[in-house]
Design a protein that fits this description.
With 265 residues, the chain is α/β, with parallel strands linked by helices. The chain contains 8 helices and 9 strands.
């Protein structure tokens, strides 16, 4: 069984973060290991509080897993501050160099929660752009996150194309620009590869108020598909189908009083 490591924050409502990553990894037929970067107080109504895990504890968690497990891919989610980011970058870089590995890293740059709570410090954003992005096989920003990374607004399909191409060229990594925040009934995610090619994945938006954790699920599913040996274009397509099925499976659930979870099983 292939091992997928999730480095992310904890969500006690289990709709996103580490808890949702584990559910996704299990449903995809892989074994999930975890490194917790932050403890959040949140539910379907939003995020109330965030406590970053001390960097030395993040470091010891990482070493415990990497020293023992044959990790085939890595998903990274919430990184609360630059100190945490530095530990993650340095540890993964040294591990890769020591073992001669090119383990794919999928990074979902979670910056602000749906309810508007900041999940990453501004200095951390600058650090990850310079040091983490180049280590990644894929980054998966949504439109608001891409706007923060580029420091300008995106409004049209032409803007999205320019944004994806700019991010790919600037950071020398593949970029999946998620289109769920765009207007219209057809959602288009665009995969920009470092060879200059662009692949589009389209599907109809599914009417549901239960969408908590979709970004976590997508990035974890991509990491699993990569761990199972699929090329990136195929892995993204597999993950998109998985998320669509999970949204349909969860649209009639009544869990909590707000933006409920999707259902992976």
């Amino acid at each position: 069984m292939e091992i997928v490591l999730s480095i992310a924050g904890s969500d006690p409502s289990a709709g996103a973060g580490i808890q949702q990553d584990l559910k996704t990894i299990t449903a995809m037929g892989c074994y999930g290991a975890t490194v917790i970067t932050a403890l959040t107080s949140q539910n379907t109504m939003g995020v109330q509080d965030v406590m970053p895990v001390p960097s030395k504890v993040i470091s010891s968690q990482l070493q415990a897993i990497l020293d023992d497990f044959d990790v085939k891919s890595i998903k990274i989610g919430q990184i609360p501050n630059a100190e945490s980011a530095t530990i993650i970058v340095d540890t993964l870089h040294d591990w890769g160099q020591k073992n001669g590995m090119n383990t794919p890293i999928v990074y979902d740059p979670v910056m602000i929660s749906t309810s508007g709570h900041r999940l990453m410090s501004s200095d951390c954003i600058q650090y990850i752009k310079k040091h983490l992005f180049p280590l990644c096989h894929l980054i998966t920003p949504n439109i608001p996150e891409a706007e923060q990374l580029l420091v300008h607004s995106l409004a049209t399909p032409f803007d999205y194309l320019q944004a994806g191409q700019t991010l790919t060229q600037q950071y020398d990594t593949n970029v999946l620009l998620k289109g769920g925040h765009a207007k219209g009934e057809i959602m288009t995610d665009r995969l920009f590869l470092t060879d200059g090619s662009v692949h589009e994945y389209q599907n109809e938006k599914i009417g549901s108020t239960n969408l908590h954790g979709t970004g976590c699920t997508l990035s974890s599913a991509i990491a699993c598909a990569l761990a199972l040996g699929n090329p990136l274009e195929t892995a993204v397509g597999m993950a998109k189908k998985f998320v669509s099925k999970a949204i349909r499976g969860g649209k009639d659930l009544h869990i909590g009083h707000g933006n409920g979870p999707i259902w992976n099983f």
